[in-house]
Structure prediction request, 171 residues.
Amino acid sequence: MAYLYGKNSGVITMGSKKYLFIKIGMVAFLAVYLFLIYTSDSAKDVPMEEIAASIESEETVTALKKRGRTDLKRYYQLSEDSLEGYLFYKAVSPMSVEELLIIKAPDKHQADIACDNARSHLDSQKQVFQGYGTDQMAFLNEAAVESKGNYVIYACGPNAQKWREIFLSLI
Prediction:
C-alpha cells in the first residue's frame, strides 16, 4: 500500500472502522449531554392552585400568616399583575425570618427577575439580623432561593428544606 503523505508524515489515516465508531460514539454522547443540560431547568406546567393546595396542607405553613399583594410589593418589589400566580406566607412577628414564597411567572425572564428580587430580600434580611439574631441568621444562611422553569421559591425557617422538597416534587 502506498502512503499518500509518506510513511512517517504524522498524518493518521482511518485504516480501521474502530476509530469511526469511537468518533460517532463521542458525538452522540456530547449531543445527549447537551440535551440534558438544556432541559435540566425545565419544569412541569402545574397550576398555582394545585401547588397551593399541596403546600397549604402542611401545618408548618399554615402556622404562618398568608400575605397579599401589598406585602409582595413591599418585600420583593413584585407586582401581582406581572405574575401568573403566587403563594406568600410570612411569620407574624417582625423578629422572625420564617417565610415561604412560591411564584409562577409568565416566562423565564420574569422568573429570573423574581429570583433576583428574592435574593436581594435574603441579603437585606441578613443585614438586618446580623450581629444579634443568631437563630435567625442560621435560618437565613440555610434559606432556599431558586428558580426552576417559570417557578421561583424562597423558603426560610426551620422547615425551609421540607417546603422546598415538597415544591420540587410537584413541578
Observations:
- The radius of gyration is 25 Å.
- The chain is about 50% helix and 15% strand.
- The longest helix spans residues 17-39.
